[in-house]
Amino acid sequence: MTDKHTAGVHHITAIAGPSQENIDFYVGVLGLRLVKKTVNFDDPGTYHFYFGDERGNPGTILTFFPWKNIPQGRVGSGQVGYTTFAIPKGAMPFWEKRFNQFHIETEKETRFNEEYLKFEDPHGLKLELVEREEGPLNTFEFNGVTKDVAIKGFGGAVLYSGSPRKTADLLESGLGFEKIAEEDMYLRYRSKSDIGNKIDVPVKAFPRGEMGAGTVHHIAFRADDYDDQQDWRTYISDKGLQPTDILDRQYFTSIYFREWGGILFEIATDVPGFDTDESLEHLGEELKLPNWLEQHRNQIEQIVDPIEVREVKPK
Predict the structure, then answer these.
(1) How many angstroms separate the Cα of 286 from the Cα of each of 39, 49, 62, 279?
(2) C-alpha to C-alpha distance for 269 and 57, rounded to whole angstroms
(3) Which uninterrupted H or E stretch holds 99?
(4) Residue environment code for 108-146, b if the CB has 16+ CB neighbours within 10 A, otherwise e
(5) Residue ranges of the domains in the chain?
(6) Number of CB atoms found within 10 A of residue 315's CB
(7) Which is the CATH superfamily of the domain at 9-303?
(8) Three-state secondary structure call for residue 63
């Protein structure tokens, strides 16, 4: 089989604290759209929120499992270190002002001749913004975040690997990313897409991370469709890794495997998307359950906290 190439990041899934705090930050402050409100299929008493652009396009989707009393995690090797969001050119001053208004601490870093604005969410997840020309504008507008400054989706991610060179090799020879730059502490890889397309790998290994609030559970890369994913599963197996069976996640299908540096990778299909059980106009408005959980709806609704999408103002 010839080498395969993913289009880039499909989604990133992280762990959060209380549900309403999670929604208030990502919708109210960052201006993302809640495109799906469902539950963790493996733990149906826990929400699973999907935030993204107006349609929840692949490459824009940050998802969360929120737990009210979960211990704080520690970001380290075997995890995504920073989740990178792309914003339009010229939008950085807006975000610096907005974060100042909301009392969000920031710092700047220059990497590969790009300026990054680094910050954390209320539960400690490490995030950063970078201006990029590429990628379409996000037309979703909410609470003062207009489309000319709105987060487009992922710029990519920074991977904290226990074996950086092996992770880098898998990105290149396994997932089809192209190595485009190397400087100081970082290697940079790029996929063919115009969003979610750049992965940076620090060349030093970090102390082992611990899963908990404020950490990334896994990073998912894109497959075109179910047939393409079957090919990916065979291909990843042939690389000596151990992918799971193909799992139905309602809005895509998935395989998971842990790469050589300890990071949990997923490959997820672009189809069918988030409008399979809600219209685009009403994405994220109702609690959606897969057919096999629908019989437990009443019980689930009594367990999960009531939440709302609302505008939030600086305190």
Answers:
(1) 12, 12, 18, 11
(2) 11
(3) helix 92-101
(4) eeebeeeebbbbebbbbbbbbbbbbeebeebebebeebe
(5) 9-303
(6) 6
(7) 2,3-Dihydroxybiphenyl 1,2-Dioxygenase, domain 1 (3.10.180.10)
(8) strand
**How far apart are the C-alpha atoms of 85 and 171, rounded to whole Å?**
20
Percent of the chain with pLDDT over 90: 98
Tell me what pLDDT residue 2 has.
46
Amino acid identity at 160 = Y
Helix (H) or strand (E) holding 254: strand 253-258
> What's residue 315's pLDDT?
84
Q: How far apart are CA 293 and CA 163, in angstroms?
A: 39
Query: How far is residue 114 from each of residues 84, 109, 110, 171, 197, measured CA to CA in Å?
Result: 12, 8, 5, 22, 15
Please name every residue paired with 177 in a beta bridge, in sequence order, or none if there are none: none
The span from the CA of 244 to the CA of 156, in Å, is 24
Element containing residue 145 per DSSP (H, E): none
What is the value of pTM for the model shown? 0.97
CB distance 123 to 74 below 8 Å: no
The tokens for 285 are: 């408005």
Q: Please tell me the distance from the alpha carbon of residue 52 to that of residue 42, in angstroms, as a whole number.
A: 22
pLDDT for 89 equals 98
pLDDT at residue 277 in the model: 96
Q: Per-residue pLDDT tens for 120-176? A: 999 999 999 999 999 999 999 999 999 999 999 999 999 999 999 999 999 999 999
